[in-house]
């Protein structure tokens, strides 16, 4: 077998009439797509990842980009991806890595769920003129309240509530670690959540001192590698999240290549400079719900029961039963991460083939927790492929209390979803630690963009709620009546507990 | 649309149904002739210790025997009879209304603090989901619900509401917009002592239904009002919230208001919203809920449906329209419009 190169994925062209040979494309492309040939710039299309940095930076709009100008013989079964994966693995004998979320052309369930709106008999509510409440509390709630009466006849609340996070919007930013993304990117996200009254996750990379001013809006993560975890770290967080699994790669651990472990990252993660940071697949002290319960309790004990503890799992077939176990482990919230969840790096086979869609998982988790009478006592956070405010609204109607966004927040900062995060060369200064690239991201400016996105989605969620005649997010949560399925099969409608359109 | 009216005599004196019939008919513009109904507390003094089960049978040949057997398994039928009805020219008789005076055997439901009530609740859910052609729509002690698909006067005359007497009356004139008009869908909705009349739509129904079903209730009537009766049963009977707090759970103050409250109150209302957020009702509504001790009326948080309250001596009236109240009592001591979400409570002394 002759293993030649595979055809180029993108064709980059330079319009000679427009190009003034300023060289900005060369400076901006860390993948080496452009180079001088004499006094002319030429493009090496093979290196292109379609990150769009050159196009965004070209002062003359001289650069063109087309996807796959050369193709294989078309075949319905032996797709281009299938054949190229074989070429690559035959050549290297290795696992194929991939960044960002699931890239399979699977239909989105969100897109086949339609929201409801009121007409005539039930007035829609105008959020510009009427109060619209999106405030959400994440944490444990009691099953019921106990009251007593004072001698004067006043009602006294006997039940003591456990600590909850108060969110002004149900949109949070999920865990993306320092290491996977740059400090500037983390700073921009932290400023954005501070501004919008919500929270973000630190990821498993510890907490850099530059983030301390924002620590009351940070959820610290305890993953299997325990990177950066110490009492100081736990105490700084507003909440603690135990990461069991991740939507992009259920059942496997994490891997930050040594090249991304610069001095600062090594310090923050508490690992040697330049060493690979490998999170094991399981937590080596958790092999059962009882073990998980012990860790939940230990973390609570360590932080004097002042902080909610979340447990994050990947959406898998048995997610509902696992979530019910988590609810009984004493955790305050369960995070369910769907198979479209993003990642810095995952084996492609996991990213594209393991896990289930968040829509089905949230619905099943909500149903199971209700069956067991504990839904009200634990919060459910949905994540993995939330692309717009409609997805947010639908996820909440399917049973989530709040959602995490990841890729969407990165896109707000400039990410073009080119899927090469694992190479550490992100031209936008997001998924990289190379100082010259990191410097391209202005935390102030990008914080505004991320905050704008959260605010815009929040406004849209309010509008959607108002249209459905709902003025508090509590009444949207788990409200399947406000959804109808379109072009979904009967089995899926049953899992979602949603009626078909027209019914 | 829909028109509601209710009255409680706080001294416990009985009123007959003649005037509430006229008052309800006053609001015929709020109905469409597809549903009307009445609930009366104190209706059956001679069987006050029995649960009065009102049942719609599609026919008594095929369905009644199954219910009889079930009731006899769980207790004793003290008396039973067809509810007397009087043919009306425009009202089509669809079901046979029947009533049982039933005494459950508490020894059969173990491990519960209120076995009799739990047996009756179980029977209502079981019959309404598992015995086709049979619907128990009223199940309290010494109270009765009378309802059908028709105009208020027709339904009243069909049952001869004028002949019943009680110290609390609830009445409802229905304009169905979401679900079809059928006998079971007419208001009042009842479970045990609780009866509910409702004008509006509950947009949070999907959330409320999933919440209440996780406590073992089953919604069978295809209409949003049903959950209100179960929510009140859960909050007031099972969780022990008083009327005021129960209403605050169902139609809570806005966060802005809660944030501005004194510390103790703030903690109380915050706890109610956090704990009972899924019981909170949304959408336009004006509701009156009754039990044997009194009535409570309230609207949604931005008052998208009208509600008027009035007093005349010992009597407290709550209705969609003042004109309807004045039809019952032309001279009133006090008339007021309750604020959004604010409960109006009339307790029997």
UniProtKB/TrEMBL annotation, chain A:
<dbReference type="GO" id="GO:0006537">
    <property type="term" value="P:glutamate biosynthetic process"/>
</dbReference>
<feature type="binding site">
    <location>
        <position position="58"/>
    </location>
    <ligand>
        <name>[4Fe-4S] cluster 1</name>
    </ligand>
</feature>
<protein>
    <recommendedName>
        <fullName>Archaeal glutamate synthase [NADPH]</fullName>
        <ecNumber>1.4.1.13</ecNumber>
    </recommendedName>
</protein>
<feature type="binding site">
    <location>
        <position position="25"/>
    </location>
    <ligand>
        <name>[4Fe-4S] cluster 1</name>
    </ligand>
</feature>
<keyword id="KW-0411">Iron-sulfur</keyword>
<feature type="domain" description="4Fe-4S ferredoxin-type">
    <location>
        <begin position="40"/>
        <end position="68"/>
    </location>
</feature>
<feature type="binding site">
    <location>
        <position position="29"/>
    </location>
    <ligand>
        <name>[4Fe-4S] cluster 2</name>
    </ligand>
</feature>
<dbReference type="InterPro" id="IPR043578">
    <property type="entry name" value="GltB_archl_type"/>
</dbReference>
<comment type="similarity">
    <text>Belongs to the glutamate synthase family.</text>
</comment>
<dbReference type="InterPro" id="IPR002932">
    <property type="entry name" value="Glu_synthdom"/>
</dbReference>
<keyword id="KW-0479">Metal-binding</keyword>
<feature type="binding site">
    <location>
        <position position="54"/>
    </location>
    <ligand>
        <name>[4Fe-4S] cluster 2</name>
    </ligand>
</feature>
<keyword id="KW-0028">Amino-acid biosynthesis</keyword>
<dbReference type="GO" id="GO:0051539">
    <property type="term" value="F:4 iron, 4 sulfur cluster binding"/>
</dbReference>
<keyword id="KW-0004">4Fe-4S</keyword>
<dbReference type="InterPro" id="IPR013785">
    <property type="entry name" value="Aldolase_TIM"/>
</dbReference>
<feature type="binding site">
    <location>
        <position position="19"/>
    </location>
    <ligand>
        <name>[4Fe-4S] cluster 1</name>
    </ligand>
</feature>
<feature type="binding site">
    <location>
        <position position="22"/>
    </location>
    <ligand>
        <name>[4Fe-4S] cluster 1</name>
    </ligand>
</feature>
<dbReference type="Pfam" id="PF01645">
    <property type="entry name" value="Glu_synthase"/>
</dbReference>
<dbReference type="Pfam" id="PF13237">
    <property type="entry name" value="Fer4_10"/>
</dbReference>
<keyword id="KW-0288">FMN</keyword>
<keyword id="KW-0285">Flavoprotein</keyword>
Automatic annotation (TrEMBL), chain B:
<protein>
    <recommendedName>
        <fullName>Glutamine amidotransferase type-2 domain-containing protein</fullName>
    </recommendedName>
</protein>
<dbReference type="InterPro" id="IPR012375">
    <property type="entry name" value="Glu_synth_lsu_1"/>
</dbReference>
<dbReference type="Pfam" id="PF00310">
    <property type="entry name" value="GATase_2"/>
</dbReference>
<feature type="domain" description="Glutamine amidotransferase type-2">
    <location>
        <begin position="2"/>
        <end position="349"/>
    </location>
</feature>
<feature type="active site" description="For GATase activity">
    <location>
        <position position="2"/>
    </location>
</feature>
<dbReference type="InterPro" id="IPR017932">
    <property type="entry name" value="GATase_2_dom"/>
</dbReference>
<keyword id="KW-0808">Transferase</keyword>
<dbReference type="GO" id="GO:0016740">
    <property type="term" value="F:transferase activity"/>
</dbReference>
<keyword id="KW-0315">Glutamine amidotransferase</keyword>
<dbReference type="InterPro" id="IPR029055">
    <property type="entry name" value="Ntn_hydrolases_N"/>
</dbReference>
């Amino acid at each position: 077998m002759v293993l030649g190169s595979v055809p180029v994925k993108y064709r980059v062209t330079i319009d000679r009439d427009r190009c003034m040979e300023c060289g900005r494309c060369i400076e901006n492309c860390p993948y080496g797509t452009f180079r001088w040939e004499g006094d002319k710039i030429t493009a090496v299309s093979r290196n292109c990842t379609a990150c769009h940095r050159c196009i965004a930076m070209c002062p003359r709009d001289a650069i063109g980009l087309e996807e796959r100008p050369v193709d294989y013989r078309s075949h319905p079964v032996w797709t281009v991806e299938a054949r190229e994966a074989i070429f690559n693995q035959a050549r290297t004998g290795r696992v194929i890595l991939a960044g960002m979320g699931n890239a399979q052309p699977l239909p989105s369930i969100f897109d086949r769920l339609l929201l409801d709106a009121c007409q005539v008999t039930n007035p829609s509510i105008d959020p510009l003129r009427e109060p619209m409440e999106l405030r959400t509390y994440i944490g444990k709630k009691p099953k019921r309240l106990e009251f007593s009466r004072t001698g004067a006849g006043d009602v006294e609340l006997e039940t003591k509530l456990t600590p909850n996070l108060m969110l002004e919007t149900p949109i949070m930013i999920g865990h993306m670690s320092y290491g996977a993304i740059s400090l500037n990117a983390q700073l921009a996200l932290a400023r954005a959540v501070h501004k919008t009254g919500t929270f973000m996750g630190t990821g498993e990379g510890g907490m850099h001192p530059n983030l301390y001013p924002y620590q009351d809006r940070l959820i610290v993560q305890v993953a299997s590698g325990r990177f950066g975890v110490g009492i100081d770290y736990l105490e700084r967080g507003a909440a603690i999240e135990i990461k069991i699994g991740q939507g992009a790669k259920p059942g496997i651990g994490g891997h930050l290549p040594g090249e991304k472990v610069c001095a600062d990252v090594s310090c923050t993660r508490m690992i040697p400079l330049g060493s690979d940071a490998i999170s094991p697949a399981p937590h080596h002290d958790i092999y059962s719900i009882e073990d998980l319960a012990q860790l939940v309790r230990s973390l609570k004990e360590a932080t004097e029961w002042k902080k909610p503890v979340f447990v994050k799992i990947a959406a898998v077939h048995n997610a509902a039963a696992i979530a019910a176990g988590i609810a009984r482990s004493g955790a305050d919230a369960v995070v369910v991460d769907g198979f479209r969840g993003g990642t810095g790096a995952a084996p492609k086979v996991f990213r594209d083939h393991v896990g289930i869609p968040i829509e089905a998982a949230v619905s099943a988790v909500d149903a199971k927790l209700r069956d067991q009478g504990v839904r009200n006592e634990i919060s459910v956070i949905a994540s993995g492929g939330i692309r717009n405010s409609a997805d947010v609204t639908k996820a909440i109607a399917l049973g989530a209390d709040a959602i995490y966004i990841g890729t969407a927040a990165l896109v707000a900062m400039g990410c073009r979803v080119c899927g090469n995060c694992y190479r550490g060369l992100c031209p936008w200064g997001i998924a990289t630690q190379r100082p010259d690239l990191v410097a391209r991201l202005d935390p102030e400016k990008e914080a505004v963009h991320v905050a704008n996105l959260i605010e815009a989605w929040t406004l849209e969620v309010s509008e959607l709620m108002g249209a459905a005649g709902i003025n508090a997010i509590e009444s949207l949560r788990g409200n399947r009546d406000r959804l109808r399925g379109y072009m979904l099969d009967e089995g899926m409608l049953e899992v979602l507990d949603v009626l078909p359109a027209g019914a | 649309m829909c028109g509601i009216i209710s009255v409680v005599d706080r001294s416990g004196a009985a009123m007959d149904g003649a005037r509430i019939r006229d008052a309800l008919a006053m609001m015929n513009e709020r109905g469409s002739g597809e549903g009307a109904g009445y609930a009366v507390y104190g209706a059956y003094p001679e069987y006050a210790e029995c649960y009065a089960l009102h049942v719609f049978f599609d026919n008594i040949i095929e369905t009644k025997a199954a219910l009889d057997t079930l009731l006899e398994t769980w207790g004793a039928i003290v008396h039973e009879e067809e509810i007397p009805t009087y043919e009306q020219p425009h009202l089509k008789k669809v079901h046979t209304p029947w009533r049982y005076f039933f005494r459950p055997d508490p020894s059969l439901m173990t491990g519960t603090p209120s076995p009799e009530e739990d047996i009756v609740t179980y029977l209502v859910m079981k019959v309404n989901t598992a015995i086709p052609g049979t619907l128990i729509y009223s199940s309290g002690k010494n109270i009765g619900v009378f309802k059908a698909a028709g105009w208020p006067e027709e339904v009243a005359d069909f049952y001869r509401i004028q002949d019943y007497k009680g110290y609390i009356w609830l009445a409802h004139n229905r304009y169905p917009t979401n679900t079809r008009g059928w006998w079971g869908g007419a208001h009042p909705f009842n479970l045990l002592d609780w009866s509910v009349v409702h004008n509006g739509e509950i947009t949070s129904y999907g959330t409320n239904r999933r919440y209440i079903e996780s406590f073992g209730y089953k919604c069978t009537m295809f209409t949003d009002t049903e959950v209100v009766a179960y929510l009140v049963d859960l909050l007031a009977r099972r969780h022990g919230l008083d009327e005021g707090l129960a209403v605050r759970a169902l139609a809570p103050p806005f966060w802005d208001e809660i944030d501005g409250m004194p510390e103790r109150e703030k903690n109380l209302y915050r706890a109610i919203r956090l704990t009972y957020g899924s019981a909170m009702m949304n959408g336009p509504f004006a509701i009156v809920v009754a039990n044997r001790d009194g009535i409570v009326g309230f609207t949604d948080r931005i008052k998208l449906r009208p509600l008027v309250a009035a007093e005349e001596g010992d009597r407290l009236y709550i209705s969609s329209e003042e004109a309807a109240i004045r039809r019952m009592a032309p001279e009133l001591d006090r008339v007021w419009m309750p604020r959004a979400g604010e409960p109006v409570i009339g307790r029997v002394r």
